[in-house]
Design brief:
It holds the Pfam family DUF2909. By secondary structure, this protein is mostly helical. It is built from two helices and no strands.
Length: 69
């Protein structure tokens, strides 16, 4: 998980940067910006679900205030 999360963040930021690039250069003639933003949403959802799955499997441990207190 220490490798997957930073890679996912880098991919999400790269997707946002490509959407900005396509927004400035395509001027609405193609749908590349929409696809780029849709892929960012998909990557964000996959990151969230993988964190939930890793917590369920016990690969990562939550920190903070315990439930019993």
């Amino acid at each position: 998980m220490h490798v997957i999360v930073p890679i996912a963040f880098i991919l999400i930021i790269a997707s946002m940067a490509s959407a900005l690039y396509f927004m400035m250069h395509d001027r609405g003639t193609t749908k590349r910006m929409a696809w780029s933003l849709a892929s960012r949403v998909g990557l964000s959802i996959m990151l969230f679900l993988s964190i939930l799955f890793a917590n369920w499997m016990g690969w990562i441990q939550p920190t903070g205030i315990p439930f019993g207190r």
